[in-house]
Amino acid sequence: MRTRAFLLAACLAASPWVHAATSVASDISDMWWNSAESGWGMNATQQANVLFITLYVYSADGKAHWYVAPQMVGDLSNASATAFVFGGALYETTGPVFSTTFNPNAVNARVVGTAQFTYTPPLQGTLAYTVDGVSVTKQLRRETWSVNDPTGTYAAALVTRSNTCSPAVTATKNLGTATVTLVNNLFTIATSGGTPTDNCTFSGNYAQEGRMGSSTGTFTCSASGTGPYTLSEIEAGTHGLFARFQGTIQGCVVYGNLGGARTTVPAAPN
Amino acid sequence: MRLTFAVAALVFAAPCASVASTFSVDVSDLWWNPSESGWGLNLIQEADVAFGTLYVYGQDGQAHWYAAPDLQGAHTSSLDTAAFNGPLMETAEPAMSGKFNPALVTTRQVGTMSFVLQNPDVATLRYTIDGVTTQKAVTRLTWRTNDINGSYALSRVYRGYHCAPGVAVTQNLGTASVSQSGDSLSITTTGGIPSCTFSGDYSQSGRLGLSSGNFSCTDGTSGSYRMQEIEVGQHAFSARFDGTAAACQFRGHLAGARADVELPPD
User: Fold this and answer.
1) What is the ipTM of this complex?
2) Burial of A114 (0-12, 13-18, 19+ CB in 10 A)
3) Short-list A97, A80, A121, CA closest to A233
4) Is the separation of the CB atoms in A215 and A228 below 8 Å?
5) Is the Cβ pair B44, A71 closer than 8 Å?
6) Could B144 and A50 be called an inter-chain contact, meaning their C-beta atoms sit closer than 8 Å?
7) What's the rounded Cα separation, in Å, for the pair A128 and A112?
8) Using a CB-CB distance cutoff of 8 angstroms, which residues of chain B are in contact with residue A39?
9) CB-CB: which of B30, B229, B259 is closest to A45?
10) What per-residue confidence (pLDDT) applies to B162?
11) Which residue has the higher pLDDT, B200 or B74?
12) Is pLDDT at A76 greater than 80 in this prediction?
């Protein structure tokens, strides 16, 4: 049976203004692989609560072959969950050879089974899929080939909350200017000019896994004292920096969100 | 030669050879041609290297993928553009239903791939496979609208041009309340100097959002704005900001840390 092409199907199946929960899970979009099985993998792209995955594997004759699950829906209603499950139909498509004028009406799609990805934030997941009755389960991690460099200065803010100290209030700290450096895996953030005054230095290691960075170390602040910290899910872009924060401030374990806007503004257009 | 593309990618990358993270608009996304639904390109960018996976069909009409694991980025003269170039590989391997043995993977370079970003949402893909060159216009594939509703501790950095003083200005905007409904967006900032309201439309292009509209502030400043490359996550959002007020034009960045902090499970 000739069916719509998978990409079109994905678009038609998706209601464009159906929003996920506000507090979505950390972005799953990445290349995922099993480092002991280099040679195949999974591409995942997440928009709101729907994952679009493509499996690049091999067919029985050993040729490179791909399958697609264009609408893997996940339940993100509990943002504090330790795992998030996405599932949907898995398709195989056939179509015109790349070297000809592409006719989308000549694409055929066939459901070959199902795919499920259980995401354990932020770095791991379990892929289970079935192709024509054959089931495969694999442990995956984000694939890394370059270190994103968060170096720069940012106008930053940190929002924190504690569940170990009373009262468990949410506090917002304007960090002022945060200067971030990364040299030989030594990661530092020096803040100044925040209100109220509490200049801080964070110093620790840095690791990259897929699109996400992480750092663990110690901070020292002029008013808040000294303690350990962990920044995870660090994502740096051309406009800003995101991260999840955990630290111990004056005996209280606090969790939080860090966001910063780059202070280097592009040159003015003509 | 037996060398998997994934291993090759790791070999190419020196693990601590960091490059400027301000390299380019992030090209990580699914890319397609809306008139040619059925094939596509997946890109994931880390620093200045993108890993491309091309999903097409072979001579037998069967789904066939090629990998470009080392697309090296090059700057262009515009903030909105970038170019990535590298070899295109084909691999073969025993079937996945058996025990996978990466040592059996064979890799063959079939040609090259180039991906030239024309603006944050549109690119030209060009690849060669065994002497056959194909060129396509592609755009980011969208199937859901990301939700940026919420409250944020917001910072804005901007620089004015075509008016004095032309220096970068950093503002802590206090708390920003973002309300997104359908294709409209409003952001109200309080607690900063000055308080402002931004009101406009919202559209999604792949991972990136875009909003254009008008703003007004309690100090009397008002004008039009454009936020693009809006990326939202569990912890924060960031965007590029352009605005016009009176004789001044502004360009800068916005970033906000979510005021709603999730605590770990008990």
Assistant:
1) 0.90
2) middle
3) A121
4) no
5) no
6) yes
7) 13
8) 4-6, 91, 93, 100, 102, 105
9) B30
10) 75
11) B200
12) yes
